[in-house]
Write a structure and sequence with these properties.
heterodimer; A: 223 residues; four-stranded mixed sheet; B: mainly beta; three-stranded antiparallel sheet
C-alpha cells in the first residue's frame, strides 16, 4: 500500500493481423489465429445481427457456432482489454448446413447478383503487378462479397493481365517473375467503378505465398 | 509568558496562541488549543494509503472508463483530494490535476472513489495518482 497509485490510460486500438479463418458451419468449432500488438480482451463473430463472443487466447480465438448460425460471410472483430476496437477485421465463410447434417449435400455459400467492374492489383514479392478486370451484373448489394478461386498457372514474364469473369466467381491467372518458384501476393483494390470496397478479406491477404499451379482464394467485401 | 505556547512536555515556544473551548483538541492551520492546561500543536500531516483498485487500466471507451480505488487515512480529516501528478514538477497539493475530491472522512475507515479515464491527464500511458488529505488541524498530506 502506498499514497501513490499507478493507473494506465489506454485509448489506442490494438493492431491485429488475422490468419485466414477456415471455412466452418453451424455446430462446428471455429478457431482463428492472430497476432496482436497487445493483449486482446474480446473477439466477436457477427453476422446478420447475431454476435458470438469467442474465447480469446494469446494467439488464437475459438468458439462453437451455434446451430442455426446463418450461412454466408461473418465478420470477426477484436478489442483490447479496455474496449478499444481494432480497425482490422477478418471474414469467415460460414457454410450452409450444420455439423449434425454433414452427410448431406453441401450447399454453396450465399451468393447474390452483383456486379462488378473493377480493377485489382496483384503485387508480388518482386514488385510485379497484374491487373484483373471483373465483369458481371449491373448492380451489387449494399453489403456483399465477391469471391473466387485463383490459380497461379506459371511464373513467367513480368506483369500480366488476367480476366475475372462472372459476378461472384472469379478466376485469376497471374504470371509472375521469370524464375520465381513462389511469390508473395497481396491483393489490393485500385479502382472500383460501381461500389467501394471496405476490405480485402483476410483469406486473400493470407495467400501470402503461392507457388506454381497452386490455388488461393480471392474474396472481396463491399460496403 | 504572554504570547507563548506551552508544548507537551513543558517546552515553550513563542507565538500567538488561539484559545478555544476545552472540548476541542485541534484547530485549523496548526493552531493551538488549551486542554486541561496543556496546549497541543498539531503540525503532523495525515498519512494516506491506497489499498486497492478494481482495474489498473482504463480507456475512454464506454464500460472501460472507470476504476474504483480504495484508500484510507490514519486520522480524521476534513477534506481530501486525489490528484494526477504525472509529469508534475512536484507532488504536493498544489501540483498536478485534480481527479477527485471530498469532505470529511473518519480515520481508518476504507473509502472508495471512482476514477475516470477522462479525468486523467491527456495521453496514453501510466498515470501517477497521489492521495492528499487535510486533517482537522489543517495539515495537508505532503
Amino acid at each position: 500500500m502506498s499514497s501513490v497509485q499507478l493507473i494506465e490510460l489506454d485509448t489506442q486500438p490494438p493492431t491485429v493481423i488475422w490468419d485466414a479463418p477456415s471455412e466452418v458451419r453451424a455446430g462446428e468449432r471455429l478457431t482463428v489465429a492472430f497476432a496482436a500488438s497487445e493483449t486482446l480482451g474480446s473477439v466477436t463473430l457477427t453476422a446478420s445481427g447475431r454476435a458470438l463472443p469467442l474465447t480469446v487466447g494469446s494467439t488464437s480465438a475459438s468458439g462453437v457456432l451455434p446451430v442455426g448460425w446463418p450461412a454466408g460471410l461473418a465478420t470477426l472483430t477484436a478489442t483490447d482489454e479496455v474496449g478499444n476496437a481494432a480497425a482490422e477485421h477478418a471474414t469467415v465463410d460460414v457454410l450452409a448446413g450444420s455439423a449434425t447434417s454433414r452427410g448431406g449435400r453441401r450447399r454453396a455459400p450465399r451468393r447474390s447478383a452483383g456486379v462488378v467492374h473493377s480493377t485489382l492489383t496483384l503485387q508480388t514479392r518482386d514488385a510485379i503487378s497484374s491487373t484483373v478486370t471483373t465483369t458481371g451484373a449491373p448492380s451489387i448489394a449494399a453489403v456483399d462479397a465477391i469471391e473466387g478461386r485463383a490459380r497461379v498457372v506459371r511464373h513467367v514474364g513480368a506483369a500480366s493481365t488476367a480476366q475475372v469473369t462472372g459476378a461472384l466467381r472469379a478466376t485469376v491467372t497471374p504470371r509472375l517473375t521469370s524464375g520465381s518458384t513462389a511469390a508473395a501476393i497481396a491483393l489490393t483494390v485500385s479502382a472500383w467503378q460501381s461500389s467501394s470496397v471496405s476490405q480485402v478479406a483476410s483469406s486473400a491477404r493470407a495467400a501470402a505465398r503461392v507457388r506454381d499451379d497452386e490455388d488461393f482464394i480471392v474474396r472481396l467485401l463491399f460496403d | 509568558m504572554p504570547g507563548s505556547v506551552r508544548m507537551p512536555g513543558g517546552a515553550t515556544t513563542l507565538g500567538a496562541p488561539v484559545w478555544a473551548a476545552a472540548t476541542r483538541s485541534k484547530l485549523p492551520c496548526g493552531r493551538t488549543v488549551r486542554v486541561g492546561g496543556t496546549t497541543i500543536v498539531d503540525v503532523v500531516a495525515p498519512t494516506t494509503l491506497f489499498i486497492s483498485e478494481t482495474v489498473a487500466k482504463v480507456s475512454l471507451t464506454s464500460g472501460f472508463t472507470d476504476t474504483v480505488v480504495s484508500w484510507s487515512a490514519n486520522e480524521d480529516c476534513q477534506a481530501w483530494q486525489i490528484r494526477d501528478v504525472t509529469g508534475a514538477a512536484g507532488q504536493t497539493i498544489a501540483d498536478g490535476v485534480l481527479v477527485a475530491s471530498g469532505a470529511a472522512i473518519t480515520a481508518g475507515v476504507t473509502q472508495t472513489t471512482t476514477v475516470s479515464g477522462s479525468a486523467l491527464t491527456a495521453g496514453d500511458g501510466v498515470k501517477t495518482l497521489k492521495l492528499f488529505a487535510q486533517d482537522l488541524a489543517g495539515n495537508w498530506t505532503a
